Amino acid sequence: MPHRSLRPATLLCRARRNSPTMRPSLFGAAALALTAACSPYPPPPDTARDPVVDTLHGIAITDDYRWLEDQDSPGTRAWIAEQNAYAERIVGDTPLRRDLEARLRELTNVPGPLFPRRAGNFEYFTIRTPDREVAAIYRRPAPEEPQRDPVDPGGDFEMVIDPLDIHPDGTTSVSVRDFSPDGDLLMYAIRDGGQDEVQIRIRDLAIGEDLPDRLPNFLYGSTFFDPDGTGFYYTWRSREVGPRVRHHTLGTDLADDTELFGEGHGPETFINVSQGAGGRYMVYNVRHGWARGDVYLHDLEAGTDPRPISVGAPARFQTRFMDDEIYLLTNLDAPKNRVVAVDLRDPDPDPANWREVIAETDDLLTGYQVIDGAIYADYLHNVSSRIVRYDLDGTVTGGIPVPEHHVATLRPWGDGAGLLTLQSLVTPSHIVRVDLETMETEPWLPSAVPFDAAGYEVRQVWYTSADGTEAPMYLAHRRGLEPDGDTPTLLYGYGGFNSSNLPRFNNSAAAWMEKGGVYALATLRGGGEFGEEWHRAGMLENKPNVFADFIAAAEWLIANGYTNPDRLAIRGVSNGGLLVGASLTKRPDLFRAVFCGLPDLDMVRFYQFTDSNNMPALLEYGNAAVEEEFEVLRTFSPYQNVRDGVDYPAVMLTQGDLDTRVPPLQARKMAARLQAATSSGLPVILDYDPRTGHAGGRTFSRNVRNSAMELAFLLGQLGVDMEVVQ
Predict the structure, then answer these.
(1) What DSSP designation does 541 have?
(2) Residue of 221, 225, 197, 192 whose CA lies nearest to 211
(3) Residues 72, 78, 84, CA angle at the centre, nearest 5°?
């Protein structure tokens, strides 16, 4: 594979950077001026510096761009417009970008399977049909037999709610929350743009109109109808007060709603709610961040106060009602999880009295479901799916075959059958039917994604982090690719919040591989891939392990001849944005290009960002108001660790005004800081959207546009043009 050709100006800049007599750290403004003169890229817009000095735990910290925290000021709005124009100028309307956008549209604009939810005499779906920009809620008469057809907007489909009627620009979305027991009422959420907050409305499906009862724009957890459909339960979460569980009776004033639970639980907690035994019992699952939870049982019929099932234990719980028991999937005394049963009638549900249903194994238990009197348990074995069948007494009775390096999801589908959805990094999602008696499979619904999986391969390797910890990494690329040290490579990671980074098919990764690149998926501490010990090894005081792991994965790719620093890009989003932000400030020499999406970057001031709804994240990251946690945070907080006169990689940051989970001010300040500090001559750009947020506000076309712009930026920096690299 030929190395990309370097422009003469870039060679001049590289010579300057390698010259001990011309380093910016020695010659300051003069050297930076030379960088600007020899860079092939236009300079970024000027950003004013207005230093603010904070003193925290005796340490003075200067913030030159505090003024950019004021999102609505005329100065910030003008700055955002200039940054967007600069980003478009850098990426350009190139043949590569147009080619990527066309290909991503082909890969993405395909029908998917229908997994209906039945209510009354209808089946309901929330789908985006290939001719539309946004998903809508549809229904059709419920068939006698389960169907396997892909999305079909014709036939007997009826659109129930079209978000374009709410906001015609396509940035508003709708989602089903629940149906009344008789199927006559639909509870649905409206999300305006990208904010996490939603409105909750109730629609009378017979007349197609909303009831006067509605919950205003806010953060809501569990929402569901009561057993007789005359009211509903909801969890309301305030940034200032915390979560509260309430009941609303239809036709009454919200001010008269009954509060059932939540007093004393602050904004750093979440509460999930479920009901059982015909609505007699409620279970409140209180989450204190991502490492600890409490469980309470509330007997509504008896009218007694909620009583604790488990409070104060250093463990998480997932709850489910099963006849006269509550099943708990928990890591209590089992770092890789187990399932236990608690008798609802036990007045003293001490853990010593719990019945173990599924014991802990060497693999991570991630979930389970009960189908036809058997338990189907989902496991991760070295970050690949396994499904094991148990009797209700915990006896293993078989397993569903899952190919190596795949992610599998099982759904019940009629008597004695299940549908198994399979995918891998090189295999688009497709469905096979499983005979749950014999475990034999047959094709059911192939993927409509136009990607030739036979031309690509995936394998798993293991790398060693700085402290000797071994971790796996998936590599996906064209079949038969031989490492030559010069392959354009994209490394992706997350590493946090007990979230498992699984080898799912990804359209952007597919487009990257079609351009001849290697796509690498690193498993990092802080995630959930190997259980709670793995998670805790990458949170709070151990958070630096995550960045060490990611850097070690990059070094493995170079040492093993796949790529080199000039051909290596990294990508991270949200907590992954923090990951790549910390990595580029720690090892700017290791990467040529960085994509940093929706990122947490100013970890020192994070606890002061009152506009964020994600204060529980302090229990994962650490709180700089606590001195010992501040001492850790300031070692990796990307914004505070940018240094003037350093040869930083090319960086693309993205964010949107309506991100209420990760304060968008962080991306704005980081873009300004890097643009002022870098001496490499490589561009730092910010692509910023006024209507999007952390997980919403984007039409189909906007998503395609964003992905194409990102890939065009990264591939362009690595020297890949329109030609497919063989």
Answers:
(1) G
(2) 225
(3) 110
Q: Are residues 498 and 638 in the same domain?
A: yes
Residues 346, 352, 353: CA angle, nearest 5 degrees:
30
SS (HEC) of 118-173: EECCEEEEEECCCCCCCCEEEEEECCCCCCCCECCCCCCCEEEECHHHCCCCCCEE
Domain that holds residue 462: 41-105+452-717
552 located within any domain: yes
What burial class does residue 414 get, using C-beta atoms within 10 Å of its C-beta: 0-12 exposed, 13-18 middle, 19+ buried?
exposed
User: What's the pTM?
Assistant: 0.95
Does residue 3 fall inside a structural domain? no
Tokens 């490589």 sit on residue: 682
Separation CA 571–CA 654 (nearest Å): 12
| Tokens representing residue 682 in the block | 């490589």
Question: What DSSP state is assigned to residue 381?
Answer: S
For position 145, what pLDDT does the model report? 74
Q: Are residues 528 and 674 in the same domain?
A: yes
DSSP 45: P
pLDDT tens by residue, 543-566: 999 999 999 999 999 999 999 999
- In DSSP terms, which residues pair with 277 in a beta bridge? none
> Nearest Cα to 580, choosing from 589, 571, 592?
571
**pLDDT classification of 36: cutoffs 50, 70, 90:** low
Residue 699 maps to a domain: yes
Please say which residue of 389, 415, 448 terminates a domain.
448
